[in-house]
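User: Predict the structure for this protein chain, please.
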Amino acid sequence: MINAQGSTYNSNITLRFFPESQVGKCGYSNSSDALTFTTESIPLKGIGHCFDLVDIFEGNSSQGFVNQTGNLGYGSGYTGEPGQAGIHWQVENMDNFDAQTNYSSVLYHQHNPDTNDKENAPGTYAARALFLYPGQGCEDTPSPSSQPLSWYGLSCWTEPEGTCGTLPYKIASFSIQATDEGDEKHGKCWAFAEMGGAAGLHVSFHAMVSLIVGTLVATWIVV
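Assistant: Here is the predicted structure, written as structure tokens:
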């Protein structure tokens, strides 16, 4: 576990991706055969990471580790195992992946099982924020010649069944980053919040991190 801070932060974040034809199956209890990405880790504060679907589901391994140890600065407060700062992740049902399929529906599950923890109840800011993109590399353009599209943000604790949404395009990539303790000061958490392209703003993953930094934290580093 990375940056564990009590039972609240022992909750996994799970993404399940569905073809357009299987939208009705989107639910945590009945979708275990879907393309699934899971991590129990929380990235280092100020460091986001982008995952391409084709890389993780067509890769040679069902699990991996994004090493962020090199971004640990003086006074970071990291108390985990040496060399283990980062994101441990795993995927399931890799054999079901088809790069040509339109995976436009996704189940987002980040549930706090502690029902007595009212500060981290469904609909409040969760431990991680996640963003969905139409282009590889967390770009908002599916191809260099295409127009920028919106990307979508999620940062709420969910109900036990998770939250399902269908995007107007094939999801090519997503990014994960830690939320900040002061995020709640900037309004409600995101639940498939539309960002970017619809407002005429062309922003890649790296630029998006810098954009958010301006309102949340002083310095973010992207790997």
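Residues 10-216 form one domain.
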